[in-house]
Amino acid sequence: MAKTNSFCWGSSALLFLCLVGFFSTPAKAALKTYQFDVQVKNVSRLCHSKPIVTVNGMFPGPTVYAREGDTLLVNVTNHAQYNMSIHWHGLKQYRNGWADGPAYITQCPIKTGHSYTYNITITGQRGTLWWHAHIFWLRATVYGAIVILPKQGTGFPFLQPYKEANIVLGEWWNNDVEEVVKQGNKLGLPPNMSDAHTINGKPGPLFPCSEKHTYALEVEQGKTYLLRIINAALNDELFFAIAGHNLTVVEIDAVYTKPFTSQAILIAPGQTTNVLVQANQVPGRYFMAARPFMDAPVSIDNKTATGILQYKGIPNTVQPVLPQLPALNNTAFALSFNAKLRSLNTAQFPASVPLKVDRHLFYTIGLGINQCTTCLNGTQLTASLNNITFVMPQIGLLQAHYFNTKGVFTTDFPDRPPTPFNYTGSPLTANLGTKLGTRLSKLAFNSTVELVLQDTNLLTVESHPFHLHGYNFFVVGTGVGNFDPKKDPAKYNLVDPPERNTIGVPTGGWVALRFRADNPGVWFMHCHLELHTSWGLKTAFVVENGKDSDHSVLPPPTDLPPC
């Protein structure tokens, strides 16, 4: 699977030896190579067996380990019947969108029987990220963790853990996910919701036939553990908690935070959260559990996935205790949890928030209904930004930009909605048609951008986790209701706002983001609810080249998949 120059990656039991090595070995960048074989494998869950697409036959897929400063070469060979592309979620890919992975945005997909090597240099990032398929709904089973350790000689800015573990949250369908999506599209409606949530691919004993499909983490009394939690679910924001144990948040989206302690966390699809857990309770077996958060009138898979935190020496016959998770619609918890997130903002890990803004953008998020001649009832649900439903091109947008290919996209995406309205008033159920187009927004190199994302009550308000490729951004403000450009900026946090790559726009509310457009290329921005992405809730930024070749898009690799 991987060739590395260190024994650190072989087993989590050896990790503490590696942490000791942080302080004794001089920093040295390394080349890490991985082979990803995309292949179909039969997997059984919930009394059902079905073929699923995997990497190297693993579900979830293999963890990619590296250190800050390393270069990754991941050769992806596609043996499955579907076209494939892999996105390295949260890696900035400076000047190198060719390795970013979203199909038809930065590359054409890898066809069956073909390969492509993602060449990734990790610069100025350390922490937990993840990788996943970025075509169709294949990320339902094609996903895994990315663990970037600090440079050798550098520790964590918090208590060094005794050991660490990855907790990857997901969703499971008993039926073939691609077939489920096709059936939904024929009706012009959402496809059937998932049958279970999972922890490291396992639903846990609250589901049928799942006693043997339960993730267990053994801990020792008095030790501290680092949990790297990833929400790889397709459509659900999730609460996560461990019975009897507090979680101390120390990192989000591979950016260190000011530590704070909570009984539970909220994590949206695409986000990562690192927490410290102290094994300081009476030795026993304690459930860890994940269940959705949904505070809008939208149907959802409200089942609880469980794993077990098991103290060493405790027999499996001891019944675990369930944690108290916030209620499904606990908006107050969601808002207060997110309000506690703050960047570390130290000399070593500064929060370089843009204070002057060159470009102000205001994007409304809406659901809609368009005519559909192939749908059974003649209409289909859709989604839009500034009333534009994004149409995917037939060739990669980055290729079209780099080679100046005409007719693939336009750069006239509007900076604000065409018609202002009371965005979060009573539900709007008339005039729900949207405009279709492959329309992008052009950003000048190194310009500073403020983007306000505003939820609307077109059909219904709903929380939307938005992910920006190629960048982190600072979440300088958020609120419920309509954004007020006169009053709300006065309340911005410009000192230590959270820095992320994926942010939940609150139900019936808004978020204000700031970033510096210093990474040239074409960068996708989309809702990380797969349903809404497939409905067109997406766009992309064309960031222009700088004045010299060192600040321009790199030439495409020779093995870039053909269109």
TrEMBL record:
It comes from the Eukaryota. Lignin degradation and detoxification of lignin-derived products. GO terms for biological process: lignin catabolic process. This is Laccase. Binds 4 Cu cations per monomer. Keywords: Apoplast, Copper, Glycoprotein, Lignin degradation, Metal-binding, Oxidoreductase, Repeat, Secreted, Signal. Belongs to the multicopper oxidase family. GO terms for molecular function: copper ion binding; hydroquinone:oxygen oxidoreductase activity; oxidoreductase activity. It comes from Prunus persica. It is an enzyme of class 1 (oxidoreductase). Residues 38-152, 166-313, 412-546 form the Plastocyanin-like domain.
